[in-house]
Specification:
By secondary structure, the chain is mainly alpha-helical. The protein has one domain. The protein contains 5 helices and no strands. Helix 1 packs antiparallel against helix 5 and helix 3 runs antiparallel to helix 5. The longest helix is centred in the middle third of the chain and has 40 residues. It is elongated. It starts with a helix and ends in a 32-residue tail after the last helix.
Length: 182
């Protein structure tokens, strides 16, 4: 669940605003690694194996998708830092001075190789983030189903799901104030 929250936060803070932007490969800044310690400890869920053998497969798959996203981000972050160094040189040496949103000239300056690498890695992050969110949600839903059926009194399984189409900028709105003023 921590992994899915990390992916949702990453998408909300970085990806959603650039999803349809043709220059997203240049505009997406290096992003912090999202919960690198947020790995699923499969040993904690071994007791579920006797209930549904598919659950460990789903959890393993969700964990792998999350770790793939973190790996893609690490590689892209390093490349984007190199891009930023070249961008600073470009902005200092452009004659006439470069306009802030003149990405065609920036692309020409950084070269086709770096441009393609940035585009490929950025597109992969958008795809892998969707895949990680979907995989983690499926694993969570299966856990909730098993929990509701086999462990109805266990608080672990009572955490509320936020479907992708219902999430906003903050999937958890603030609690109402005790003063009644909202």
């Amino acid at each position: 669940m921590l992994q899915r929250e990390s992916v949702l936060n990453f998408k909300n803070q970085y990806l959603d605003r650039l999803r349809d932007d043709p220059d997203r490969d240049l505009k997406l800044p290096p992003a912090p690694l999202i919960a690198p310690d947020g790995r699923i400890n499969l040993e904690d869920f071994g007791f579920l194996l006797e209930r549904d053998a598919n659950v460990l497969h789903r959890l393993t798959n969700a964990d792998l998708r999350f770790r793939c996203l973190v790996g893609w981000m690490e590689v892209r972050n390093a490349l984007h830092l190199r891009f930023q160094e070249q961008l600073q040189v470009f902005q200092r040496t452009a004659n006439p001075p470069a306009q802030k949103d003149d990405y065609d000239d920036v692309r020409e300056f950084i070269g086709r190789s770096m441009e393609l690498q940035l585009r490929h890695l950025t597109d992969a992050i958008f795809d892998v983030a969707e895949d990680a969110e979907t995989g983690n949600r499926k694993a969570e839903l299966l856990l909730r189903e098993i929990g509701a059926r086999d462990y109805p009194n266990d608080r672990l399984f009572k955490i509320e799901d936020v479907p992708p189409d219902k999430r906003g900028k903050d999937p958890y709105p603030p609690a109402p104030s005790s003063s009644g003023k909202g």
